[in-house]
Amino acid sequence: MYKNKGLVAEAFPEELLNRLKGQIAIGHVRFGDGTPPSLSNAQPLTFNYLRGSVALAHNGKLVNGPELRHRLAVNGSIFQSDSEAEIFVNLIARYGQNPLEEALLKCMIDIKGAYALVVMSEKQLIGIRDPNGIRPLCLGKLDDGYVLASESCALDTIGATLIRDVEPGEIVVIDEKGLRSFKTMVPSRRAVCIFEYIYLARPDSTIDGETVNIARREMGKQLAREARPEADLVVPVPDSGTPAAIGYAEATGLPFREGLMKNRYIGRTFIRPSQKIRDVAVRLKLNPIREIVEGKRVILVDDSLVRGTTSKKIIQMLRNTGVKEIHMLITSPPVLYPCYYGVDTSAREDLIAACYDLEGTRKYIGADSLHYLSLDGLLNSFKGSKDRFCTACFNADYIAGKPESHNER
How far apart are CA 148 and CA 241, in angstroms? Predict the structure, then answer.
């Protein structure tokens, strides 16, 4: 096992990777979320129990995590980190008299929330997706082996072929006998996180049959049906706003221009640990191109408006370059409620749409006008059934429940 801080390419130099031998491997990347950075919270977690050595990594958030942690501690379990993955570890050990996949099935009965899980023993690689499929997980083929990944673009990078998405409530087991899988629970409702398509996932990924890039372009086209302020050109907030801006420009016939240049070495800003760091990151991340935007009426397209501070900084930067008008168009509905399933928006008082009405939000960010895509418009951006997404951040429909300690109304 090896862990380090920083970008993957820096944390894992080639000479180190060459020293890691074996026929099974798992890895994990974690972004900063406001807690003090600690390698003890970094995954994978490795442990020894009744049936041998196991490593585990998980993506998502458990709504009953604190209760489970307390119950396990009362019964003698020891925790060495703040990671929720350690709850899985202790539950596996508790059910250690069973084969690993059976122990994991018992874990799923205890656990509530959103998770995609990869577990490795000395002879098996196992993937699990939560019963509602809130967090994505896909299966691929590489030569004579198999690959599990949170996004299909990871498979493309290593030359693997996408086989399919892991189904909600499914356990996939890979060993020397090949691949086998079984469904553990029938989900009350399939509900993949819609924010994966809006913001989180890379545009070249496909999740549950929907290509993220195509969905985002359709969001832009839907927004053009709902809002058409008078303007000279369409400018995206890169990168997650770019496909939608292209779709909006195609639908309206307005010219698409990249009026903001992105520094590719700066990460996402709304998940930065503090507001001061987020403000600095915005200035480092984006820079207006004066020759494109000066004196123009600009439609500025972004994927979402969460805290509002990033948009405020961007609009001020554009004002400083002489933009005549700025019309802010958001390709998602207002984010009104916290996410308890893995998106770092856990406090409602931090959500600008929960604190201000539309006009108040417009004034706060400094735009000449502000338009959100409606929830119906967002859902119409997808093929097939519209009742297969988690939209709790827009309408408080918490399909997998919410923590007992949170009583947001």
Answer: 28
